[in-house]
Amino acid sequence: MSPKTMKLLAKPMLFGAALIWGTSFFIMKNALDVMPVFFLLAIRFTAGGLLLAAIAWKKWREFTPDYLWRGAVIAGFLFLAYAVQTFGLARTTPSKNAFLTSVYCVLVPFLTWAVVKRKPDRYNVAAALLCVTGVGLVSLTEELTINGGDLLTLLCAIFYASHIVAVAKLSLDKDITLLTVFQFAFAALYAWVCGACTETFPAAALTDPALLLPMLYLCFMATTVALLFQNVGMIWSDPASASVILSLESVFGVLSSVIFYGDPVTGRLLAGFALIFVAVVCSETKFSFLRNKKKIRTA
């Protein structure tokens, strides 16, 4: 396709990725009723990795042995993020899981500071304060306690942020699609090992026709297709608008959970969700899209 066509498709692809990931929360919640966490992730990463490996077959000529250790390290953070998030989802609502997971966007600048010594700016600090307030509204009870599911989800946000920093650090001069194949492969390996050690393989559940479509959606749409949409969309779109579109994942997560899963939503939850969403937009874009509009109007 021509560059002009790719630019036209970039934002719809990003929107599609956000929509797919947002709707995956309640689907994952339903799948957890019959599938143990590690085997669910093992099947998801294995299927996604095989499909992506087939799609990226031309990239294999660029393979070098260091793809293995780089993929293994990055996959460690990816596996921990997905595993902790999934355990958290089993103990909280899909809508809260969706928004609390998005906290990783706010954490990335601070972890980057720790790794490469690049200080966060005032927008990152403001986003952190907004985010903490939003998390308090979403998660804290009247007794100022937090349930286990929300706490695990916040922990998963730390691992997601660590994964992003690891990708930025270890993917230099490497093909990101090929590196992602090894991320999926090693994440699948970690999940299979953990599942074999701690869980019983759900053979009966896998023969249930009602589980087939959700698993196909999680394996192919929410893993491979959404990731490809994100990679292509980020390349052919400006970072500010791309970040805003991708942050809609949490909004879609709440909407789909309320509509299809029946999640209860209170005024306090909505206020917390709004603060977290503004925090993510602030951290990711520094509101550059507002300044650009102002410049256009005054020109």
Can you describe what's shown?
By secondary structure, the chain is mainly alpha-helical. Helices cover about 80% and strands about 0% of the residues. The chain has 14 helices and no strands. Helix 5 packs across helix 7. It is globular and about 50 Å long.
How are the SSEs ordered, and which strands pair?
Blueprint: H1 3-31, H2 37-55, H3 66-89, H4 94-101, H5 104-116, H6 122-139, H7 148-170, H8 176-198, H9 203-206, H10 209-235, H11 239-246, H12 248-261, H13 267-285, H14 288-298
List keywords for this structure.
mainly alpha
The total strand number stands at 0
Number of helices: 14
First-to-last CA distance: 34 Å
Order of helices and strands: HHHHHHHHHHHHHH
Rg (CA only) = 19 Å
Report the principal-axis shape: globular
Q: What is the residue-mean pLDDT, rounded to a whole number? A: 84
- Please indicate the percent range of residues in DSSP E strands (runs of 2 or more): under 5%
Query: Can you tell me the residue ranges where pLDDT is under 50 for at least 5 consecutive residues?
Result: none
Summary of the model, kept short:
With 299 residues, the chain is an all-alpha fold. The chain has helices at residues 3-31, 37-55, 66-89, 94-101, 104-116, 122-139, 148-170, 176-198, 203-206, 209-235, 239-246, 248-261, 267-285, 288-298. The relative contact order is 0.21.
